[in-house]
Amino acid sequence: MSQKRVLSGIQPTSDSFHLGNYLGAVKQWVELQDTHDTFYCIVDLHALTIETDPALLRKRTLASAAQLLALGISPEKSTLFIQSQVPQHNQLGWIMECMAGFGEASRMTQFKDKSAKVGSDSARVGLFTYPMLQAADILLYQADLVPVGEDQRQHIELTRDLAGRFNARYGDTFTLPEAYILKAGAKINDIQDPTSKMSKSSGSGAGVIEIMDSPDANLKKIKSAVTDAGREVKFDQSEKPGISNLLTIHSALSGRTIAELENEFEGKGYGDFKSAVADVVVEYLRPIRERALELLQDEKHLLSVLHDGSAKARTVAGATVDATYKGLGVVQ
Ligand code: AMP
Ligand code: TRP
């Protein structure tokens, strides 16, 4: 039996992924490679919905690719590509815009949140049409499953609605995708403010562990992570959010269970525990960062890996656009 198709995308909007991105998303992308036919896309066109600096966009796109490869996305197992190198995304994006209702698009909560933040005069039209481009990203590859965080569920539902509408009106063209919501346990919180999500937009960044930060910087950050009242290393999300978050991080990277860790640190203080977490994180990330830096040093090679991925993606995407145009009656 052929494998189910998976597609996901990530925006190149930061110099480094953080531990939340890795444990909440990319680690599961890596795992899916062995059981699914996986397509992973760096969605640089989506990143244009906010003001961008050209040098930064380029740097971050390459840095994202290098980190995905260093984290275990394999060009042999997956099709890893840059969205803008596959023009079919824009072609199908327009068709999806013509399928979507204005009211339907206006109900997208991510659009409402993001546009409210900047005000309607500053919000770009691209922010409004973002979900239809995302629908195109998914439908072009006839994806069965879309691994994303909970916040993206509404966009996947919209994608299904648009695909179903097109199929009903113009003939069976698209696979209806399902959201594959990433495991809740993988949610990582800020280590300075452990009741909020670790996020690239967090104020000082002191609570965010970045993959591309030096081992020294990460060691210091973890050693100064906030802890909680008491002195027992116990998993208790409401009473001990700081310790619970550090236990989650340790367990996810070391592969040991939370119970094992609680046992090991029984009778020891928070200081010992934080040193152990720091060691695990730093040693886990060290080779990944080194590999990413190595990949970034040989830009020609990195670009050729991405060009190969984009060429494969164009073949699949091209067939979908042809079928879509045919259904619509576009003269080809
Ligand atoms: P973002 O760039 O914030 O949109 O995140 C990219 C991916 O990482 C999405 O799939 C998110 O669900 C995931 N992600 C971001 N922050 C966290 C976090 N703190 N814990 C778990 N997953 C996260
Ligand atoms: N909107 C997604 C996010 O913010 C990124 C994205 C763009 C995406 N296109 C996609 C995710 C297609 C899954 C599939 O995280």
Describe the structure.
- With 332 residues, this protein is mostly helical.
- It folds into two domains: 3-184 and 298-326, Rossmann fold (3-Layer(aba) Sandwich), CATH 3.40.50.620; 203-290, Orthogonal Bundle (Tyrosyl-Transfer RNA Synthetase).
- It is built from 13 helices and five strands.
- It has helices at 19-32, 44-47, 54-71, 88-99, 102-106, 109-118, 125-139, 153-170, 215-223, 241-254, 258-264, 270-297, 299-328, and strands at 5-10, 37-42, 78-82, 145-148, 178-181.
- It has a three-stranded parallel sheet with strand order 1-2-3. It has a two-stranded parallel sheet with strand order 4-5.
- Helix 8 (153-170) links the parallel strand 4 (145-148) and strand 5.
- Helix 4 packs across helix 7.
- The radius of gyration is 21 Å and the shape is globular.
- The two termini are 34 Å apart.
- The protein binds adenosine monophosphate and tryptophan.
- Tryptophan is lined by residues 7-9, 11, 43, 46, 134, 137-138, 146, 148, 152.
- Tryptophan binds at residues 7-9, 11, 43, 46, 134, 137-138, 146, 148, 152.
Low-confidence stretches: none
Gross CATH architecture of the largest domain: 3-Layer(aba) Sandwich
Number of helices: 13
CATH C-level of the largest domain: Alpha Beta
Enzyme class: ligase
GO cellular component, one term: mitochondrion
Protein name: tryptophan--tRNA ligase
Family: Belongs to the class-I aminoacyl-tRNA synthetase family.
